[in-house]
Design goal:
Blueprint (H helix, E strand, L loop, with lengths): L1 E7 L13 H6 L8 H15 L3 E4 L10 H17 L3 E4 L8 H8 L3 E3 L7 E5 L4 E5 L15 H7 L7 E6 L1 E2 L8 E2 L1 H7 L3 E5 L15 E4 L17 E6 L2 E7 L5 E9 L9 H16 L8 E9 L1 E2 L2 H10 L8 E2 L2 E10 L2 E2 L3 H4 L5 H11 L7 H22 L14 H29 L1
Helix pairs in contact: 2-3, 10-12, 11-12
Length: 442
């Protein structure tokens, strides 16, 4: 028996994408054409096209109560089309739509809200081809773990020929959360064949190897801010019996964000900035053309990395860079640069600087000590002292009230050395710039 489902993560109807320049948004038909409403319409179209048996929504369908009417209108239109096409529609309520989804489910025949009021519920899909076991938020916050409810274990103890698919919106493996925190290990042990999760906007779902539980976040239906990079869209899940045989992430979002790293090591001057950024855009388009899908607008954050001798001049060039002048259209898609992030380090001669006893020289000496050989007794002792001071400083920070709840693991020496090195190089560059400014002023 084959079962095909279109699974949809957080939609947030009513929200519009920010950080997209007005002229770029206008060229694509306006912000609504790049946001959740357009992604939802495309999802409904695809569900009908694929003739799936069911569509399931993993919560936060509407962004908030203030946008209730706007979200309701778009959602209801899509749901009616699905139901008219004979596609069953299921949903669990998330923390954003605690009141909206129950109201809609009470007025729209064909929409089943699974686990209403915080009570675990099992519902059949496609006349018994499978079933959903789900839980919906009873209030906007859920500070207890719903997976410890005995009713869930009771429901999952019953087996069926088709897949048992768990639906849950919340925080996976979080030490503290107001949004239904739960354990991945517990989900895997409970007995469902698949767990579909909502709440986190970065998709992590993947089909597991045979004998293991497929589990993960579906991600937001469309990118809502520049941090939500990569493919966004619904998931087309195909089951043969209880086995998930295919999980296809459909790139239906019309807006895509990416962070692209560009190494500057081979650059010879700041004049390489514009061609370097332009090349990064074209390289991304060539590399990702097959995965961009329905994206009509692509926003890039360029992260400059590596080392160069003209870092100060490069910093000033980045500040002056005319982002609005770099808006190429490639393969019918509008590209734009949202920001250029400077992670470049100055190329410094530490050996030469370390010959002096001024502050830059003393700092250069300590940076060199981080790479001391075991035979260099003096510098290995200095490295040990630096590491001890760094660990003490970290420990002092973690004892502060605002950080005490954050789980932490002991850092390996190699990782801590890299952190100290990066901080030291940044400080050394600042010291050298201050000295150069002072000498210029004199």
């Amino acid at each position: 028996m084959t079962l095909r489902i279109l699974a949809v993560g957080d939609i947030h109807l009513g929200r519009r994408p920010g950080s997209v320049p007005d002229d770029v948004a206008a060229s694509a038909g306006g912000r609504d054409a790049l946001g959740p409403r357009a992604a939802w319409q495309a999802t409904v179209d695809r569900a009908i096209q694929e003739r799936v048996q069911a569509v399931v929504l993993l919560g936060d369908v509407v962004d908030d109560e203030e946008r209730y009417l706007e979200g309701w209108s778009a959602l209801e239109t899509g749901l009616r089309r699905l139901i008219t096409a004979g596609i069953e529609v299921f949903a669990v309520a998330g923390n954003h739509d605690v009141r909206v989804l129950p109201r809609l489910a009470s007025t729209l025949s064909g929409l089943h809200l699974v686990g209403a009021g915080g009570q675990w519920e099992s519902v059949e899909i496609a006349n018994g081809a499978g079933r959903f076991v789900g839980w919906s938020y009873p209030t906007a916050h859920a500070r207890t773990d719903p997976t410890h409810d005995p009713e869930l274990a009771r429901l999952l103890a019953t087996r069926s020929e088709g897949p048992t698919i768990g639906l849950l919106h919340g925080a996976l493996d979080a030490a503290h959360s107001d949004y239904a925190r739960f354990s991945g290990a517990r989900l895997a042990a409970l007995g469902a064949d698949t767990w579909l999760l909502g709440h986190v906007h970065g998709p992590t779902f993947a089909r597991a190897d045979a004998g293991r539980i497929s589990m993960g976040f579906l991600g937001s239906l469309t990118a809502l801010d520049p941090t939500e990079t990569g493919v966004h869209g619904p998931w087309l899940l195909t089951y043969a019996g209880r086995e998930l045989v295919e999980a296809q992430h459909l790139a239906l979002a019309t807006l895509r964000w990416e962070c692209v790293a560009v190494a500057v090591d081979a650059w010879t001057s700041v004049e390489d900035l514009e061609p370097g950024v332009t090349g990064a855009l074209r390289d991304f388009d060539a590399r990702e053309a097959a995965n961009i899908g329905a994206a009509r607008v692509v926003g890039l954050r360029i992260e400059l990395t590596g080392r160069c001798k003209f870092h100060r001049d490069l910093q000033r060039a980045i500040e002056r860079f005319a982002h609005d002048q770099l808006r190429p259209t490639l393969d019918g898609r509008a590209f734009f640069v949202d920001a250029i992030v400077d992670r470049v380090r100055a190329e410094l001669d530490l050996q030469a600087l370390a010959r002096d006893t001024d502050p830059p020289g003393l700092l250069a000496q300590r940076l060199l000590a981080l790479d001391a050989l075991p035979s260099d007794v003096t510098n290995t002792g200095e490295r040990a002292r630096i590491l001890r001071l760094a660990r003490d400083a970290r420990e002092s920070l973690t004892r502060r009230s605002e950080f005490v709840a954050i789980p932490r693991a002991e850092l390996r020496d190699e990782v801590l050395i890299e952190e100290v090195r990066e901080a030291g190089l940044t400080a050394l560059e600042e010291l050298l710039a201050s000295r150069a400014n002072a000498e210029a002023g004199a």
